[in-house]
Design goal:
This protein is an alpha/beta fold and 186 residues long. It has a single domain (30-181), classed as Flavodoxin domain (Rossmann fold), CATH 3.40.50. Helix content is 42%, strand content 16%. It is built from six helices and six strands. Strands 1, 2, 3, 4, 5 and 6 form a six-stranded parallel β-sheet that branches. β4, α5 (144-151) and β5 form a beta-alpha-beta unit. α2 crosses α6 (171-181). The longest helix has 26 residues, at 2-27. The structure holds flavin mononucleotide. Flavin mononucleotide binds at residues 36-41, 72-73, 76, 106-110, 135-139, 142, 165.
Length: 186
C-alpha cells in the first residue's frame, strides 16, 4: 500500500514538474541575435527564429568590414589582437523583456567577431539564458564559447550549436534536434 502511494506520488510529482518546465519554456521570450559577414550565420539565425518563434536582431557594426575576403581576414585579426570593440549601428530596445538570447556568429580566427563582443558588453545578461550558435569552416566553435561566457557573466550558457558553413540540407533537422536536446524545442 505504502509502495503504491509512493509510486503514485512520484508519478504525480514528475508529471507536474514536467508540465511546469514545458510551460516555462513556452512562456520564455526569445531573441535570436546574430552577426554575419557572408550570410551563412544569417540563414541559421532565420531557421532558429522560425523554429522558436523568437524575435530576430542583426548585429551591424557602424563601419562595415571589407567585402574582400583577404582584407576582412586582416581586419578581423587586427580587431582580435587589439580586443577592439567596434561601435554598432543598432541596439535592442528593451533587452529586459527577453529570457533567452540566442547569439550567432561566424567563427573568426577561432573566436567571436569583435562586434559580438561589443554586443555582449552592451547589455546585462544576469539571470538570462544565453545560447551560442556558430558557423565555421572546419574549426567548430574554437574558443568562442569561453569568450562569450567571459562577456556575459551571471548568465546561464546552454550547449552551443556549431554548423559547417551553411549547414546544408540537414540544417533544419539539426536545429530541431539541438533545440530538443537543450530543452527549447516546441
Ligand atoms: C575573418 C574570417 C576569419 C575566419 N576564421 C575562421 C576560423 O578560425 N576557423 C574556421 O573554421 N573558419 C573561419 N572562417 C570561416 C567562417 O567561419 C565561415 O566561412 C562561416 O561560414 C562564415 O559565416 P558568415 O557567412 O555568417 O559570415 C573565417 C572567415 C573569415 C571571414
Amino acid at each position: 500500500m505504502m509502495k503504491m502511494a509512493l509510486i503514485l506520488f512520484a508519478t504525480l510529482f514528475f508529471s507536474i514538474a514536467g508540465l511546469v518546465k514545458a510551460a516555462q519554456a513556452e512562456n520564455s521570450k526569445i531573441l535570436v541575435a546574430y552577426f554575419s559577414w557572408s550570410g551563412n550565420t544569417r540563414g541559421i539565425a532565420q531557421q532558429i527564429q522560425q523554429q522558436t518563434g523568437g524575435d530576430i536582431f542583426e548585429i551591424v557594426p557602424s563601419r562595415a568590414y571589407s567585402t574582400n575576403y583577404n582584407t576582412v581576414l586582416d581586419e578581423a585579426l587586427r580587431g582580435q589582437r587589439d580586443q577592439a570593440r567596434p561601435p554598432l549601428k543598432n541596439r535592442v530596445e528593451n533587452m529586459g523583456q527577453y529570457d533567452v538570447i540566442f547569439i550567432g556568429y561566424p567563427n573568426w580566427w577561432a573566436s567571436i567577431p569583435m562586434p559580438v563582443a561589443t554586443f555582449l558588453e552592451s547589455y546585462d545578461f544576469t539571470g538570462k539564458t544565453v545560447v551560442p550558435f556558430c558557423s565555421h569552416g572546419g574549426g567548430l566553435l574554437g574558443q568562442s564559447v569561453a569568450a562569450i561566457a567571459k562577456l556575459s557573466p551571471n548568465s546561464k550558457i546552454l550547449e552551443a550549436l556549431s554548423v559547417h558553413y551553411t549547414g546544408g540540407r540537414s540544417l533544419n533537422s539539426d536545429i530541431t534536434a539541438w533545440l530538443n536536446k537543450i530543452g527549447l524545442g516546441k
